[in-house]
Amino acid sequence: MDRQRARARRRARYVLSCYAYLLPLIVNLVVLSAGPVLYSFFISFTNWQIVLPPVWVGVRNYTEQMASPVFWKVMWNTFYYTLGYVPLTMVVSLSMAVFVNQKLPGISFFRSLYFLPVVSSGVAVALVWGWIYQPTFGVLNWFLDAVFKIQGPRWLSDPRWAMPSLIILGVWRSMGNNMIIFLAGLQGVPHELYEAARMDGANRSQEIRHVTLPLVTPTIFFVLVMSVIGSFQVWEATYLLTQGGPANATLTISYYIYQEAFEWFHMGIGAALAYILFFIVAIVTVVQFQLQRRWVFYR
Amino acid sequence: MRLAASIRTTRRIRFVCRAALTYLALLALGLITAVPFVWMVVSSLKAPGTLFIYPPQWIPRPPRFYNYVELTQKMPFIAFFWNSTKIALLSTVGTLLSCSLAAYAFARFEFPGKSVLFAITLSCLMVPYQVVLIPVFAIFNKLGLMDQQIVLWGPSFTGSAFGIFLLRQFFMTLPGELEDAAYIDGATRFAIYRRIFLPLSQPALMTLAIFTFMGSWNDLLGPVLYLHTKSKMTLTVGIAMLSHQWGATPWHLIMAGAVISVVPILIVYIAGQKYFVQGIVMTGLKM
Fold it and tell me: Which of B23, B26, B266, B268 would best serve as a mutation to test chain A binding (most A beta carbons within 10 A)?
């Protein structure tokens, strides 16, 4: 009996000591991550403006948004940003990776250079681009005028050009990051396969199509999923450069949530919008994972 | 013989052409990457008047270093710099401590509830940050922590799903024999964590440290949401405020501020470049 009890006690102490290592994490889950995910769901069914206690309103926050033209404008803008940003960043960064994946002198210099925008603060980067996009004295319009003899648009203050401007900025900022991931994928392709292909008489373009491309599809898939998720979360550049304008042209879901929740303190609406975003991200990710069977090749 | 030689020369020519084209592409991409940075530095050295000259001057004549002095007069620069450094360093220490402890437990201990806890932690990686933003804001508000810097670095002492995942993956690759020998010598689990796991995981810890420091230093949303008193703010917010404050945008000061906010990160990047690359590859390919 005694020995059994002693063993049970030792076991309990062991488990307890395991949890001691995880104590910070448990606090995190309860107060800062998993707990708030549930709490947020509750908030989304209330009318709450921080000062007074929340009032239950059922699904009103959701139905009101569905009926609001601004919400659909926001959805369209988010979709527009994703559709512009994702393909561009994928194509540019994959080609960059192909270029820097060669044994040439000075190549590591270019690799480090391309990575520079990734480490710089988003604030610095956004503000510099704001200055570059400046319609009358900005370098971009000067460049367009000097080289192509065209008069550039008013970029960030033109409703038609504001979103493309943010997309270009986003691609410029992220391309180095994705390049590194693609580079790792390219370097993971075993050399024997290229040798085997060459033995079979493949030329270079066949080599790329039938050896390189299939073997980097897992990397392409990863970058695709991460870029799509990332594209739903642009906030910094919008905050610094356009505040969602002009005429709501750059109001994407992420900035809309910020506006509702932290400028107007409509916490309930903000939480409902965040859940709508969560839902969209989940669906898009699941669909991508379903589709991956058709085109991603795992060795 | 002659045929072989001519094949060799055509091959050589083709190789040289390809290398030349590659360098051309590399250079074009390099320009696209570098020009905004060059323009940032150039603009930061211009007198306010010469900024608005058309066509733009690529060499500021004369360079006006006084802009940097003016910047420190227009905002409490030293305080901002100190706040940024303090918050970034505390966040880094906190993240390393809490994440390595949790990752060690997940990698080496067997206990009831482990897989559930790990699954919950991982699923937090999938949730968009906006979902937790509002409740966390409300919780900090309730706790009376508004306008206090602890809100920005405190959470890091409870760990992050990303860091735990990164370190756990690394700890799993460490061979078990080392610990077995230490256990036989009577070492405790904590001693093994401190004496074996931490020293052997330096590359992974460095990667996490650099990422955390950079993320905290560059963070804008956190300070914007939580800090109101000017003297408590960070450098990024200070520079962002320059662009919002005055009627006519003081581009020369904003660019000087941008340069200063990029330099510390640049130093960290140059010093720890290989850890950056490692980190991206580690998190990118093992998911």
Answer: B26
